[in-house]
Design goal:
Blueprint: H1 2-5, H2 12-18, H3 20-23, H4 27-35, H5 39-59, E1 72-80, E2 102-108, E3 113-120, H6 131-135, E4 142-146, H7 153-161, E5 165-169, E6 177-180, E7 187-188, E8 191-199, E9 209-217, E10 227-232, H8 240-250
Parallel strand pairs: 1-4, 4-5
Antiparallel strand pairs: 1-2, 2-3, 5-10, 6-8, 7-8, 8-9, 9-10
Length: 259
Amino acid sequence: MSPVVFGVQPSVRAAYRAHAADVGTSIISVYNKLSGLETPTSSELVRSSARALAPRIAHMDGERAPWLAGYRVKIIDGNCLPASAHRIQELREAEGRALPGKALVVSEPAQGLVTDVFPCEDGQAQERALLGAVLTRVTRDDLWIADRNFCPRAFLTEIDARGGFFVIREPQGLPWEMVSPLRSCGRTPTGQLAPQRVCVVDAQGHQPVCRRLQITRDHATRDGDTMLYILANFPRQVSAQRVAQLDQNRWKLATAFQH
């Protein structure tokens, strides 16, 4: 599939002919396999490619400056697979048509790579339903950056329990207990900044203390928000301005799905 994806071969059949001796089975069996490819196979293709490419990027001095020294930055976002054009013509505009699958995608800006993917065949599934699989990938000193769709209490507290860190937009209605009040501490490039300390308690009784940053924006976001809140569990040595900048940098990778 790699020669087809990268345009080296024009089709699966052409790639098969070029590598028939290595494949060791019939072209019909290849097509049957592709028609029922398991989602773990797709995930491992992404992970194995990243494992192979990362050391080559490092060897060629191609790594980018780290967003935050000492942390392995991982940006996670959801994406619905753009497969609507492949439905039969009569169903493409139907209101009750089945949605294509979706995936949670992890990118690492230091390498410029997508390093992990969590596909789901159910296009109706919520992104939060896939977070259990994501937690199995969390390791010490990871820094996970995400939008408000990735902010359930259990996800935050489990990242903290595994020795990881997060910078995640706070959604409305997230319960927390105040440890210290908001206090102004200057500006970011987009507005006024006021941090405070809060305690997020999950159903198992975990109570990590986090920093909660309030950003009063000079201009509304494209969604009309003039007030944003960010939750982070960094030590005090990382400034509130630096945390806000990490959240802002996340948007620089928003077009990764189009590349």
